[in-house]
Amino acid sequence: MNEDSIWSWETAWDVLPQLLRGLVVTIEATVVGMVIASILGLFIALAMRTPTRWVRGPLRLVVDFIRMTPLLVQLVFAWLLLVDIPPLVIGFSVLGVHYATYMSEVYRAGIEAVPKGQWEAAIALNLPRARTWRAVVLPQAIRNTLPGLGNYAVSMFKETPFLFAITVVEMYQAAQQYGALNFSYIEPLTLVGLLFLLVSYPTSLLVRKMETRLA
Amino acid sequence: MSDDLQALIDSLPDLGGAVLVTLQMTLGGAVLAMLVALVLGFGSRTRSLWVRGPSRVVIEFFRGTSLVVQIFWLFYVLPVFGFKMEALAVAIVALGLNYGAYAAEVVRGSVESVPTGQWEAATALNLGPFHKIRRVIFPQAWALMIPQLANLLIQLLKGSALAFYITLHDLYWWIDELQRDTRDTFFSYGCGLVLYFVIAYVLTWGMNWLEERAKRRLGRGTRPRLRDVFGLKPGVPTEVVRVKGGVA
Question: Whole-prediction pTM value?
Answer without folding.
Answer: 0.88
